[in-house]
Design goal:
Elements: H1 2-36, H2 45-72, H3 82-116, H4 120-155
Helix pairs in contact: 1-2, 1-3, 2-3, 3-4
Length: about 160
């Protein structure tokens, strides 16, 4: 009974935390990419509904994967066939890329605000945030490479 309750707590926590967060992050990233591409507001209801639905699906899949990792460990990301593993990593990669796009948008806004208002504190925080984001991205890519090599080495034994 205790296992069931802890599983339900982790599942509900993942759903309550990560579905809305991922949903809003993907929507903000899509809006940012629309602005960068120079497109106007979305006039087509079908396109808007597709973006909303895709964001919701990405949020749900992300919450489920985070729940499985919390319950069973990172090896859960490598379950299933090779194509399912690639799809799982692809979904999580899209969400991570969306988060990076939103963070870059925030940092660019902070840096431009610091320049426009001659505010060195805001400018310094924006630059520090950009450096921290770069450092984290580099560390994440290196950790992913090491993990991939480790999995490949174990598979060849």
């Amino acid at each position: 009974m205790r296992d069931y309750l802890s599983t339900a707590a982790v599942l509900s926590g993942s759903l309550l935390l990560f579905v809305p967060l991922t949903f809003l992050t993907v929507l903000a990233a899509a809006d940012t990419l629309r602005i960068v591409a120079g497109l106007g507001p979305i006039q087509n209801g079908f396109v808007h509904a597709t973006v909303l639905f895709s964001s919701l699906v990405l949020g749900y899949v992300t919450a489920m994967e985070i729940c499985r990792v919390r319950l069973h460990g990172f090896s859960e990301l490598h379950r299933g066939t090779r194509s399912r593993q690639l799809a799982r990593h692809g979904v999580l990669g899209v969400v991570a890329l969306a988060a990076a796009v939103v963070l870059v948008r925030i940092l660019v806004a902070a840096i431009s605000f610091g320049f426009a208002n001659n505010d060195p504190a805001v400018l310094g925080l924006g630059v520090a945030g950009a450096l921290a984001l770069s450092w984290t991205a580099l560390g994440s890519v290196n950790a992913f490479r090491r993990g991939t090599r480790h999995i490949q080495n174990e598979g060849s034994r």
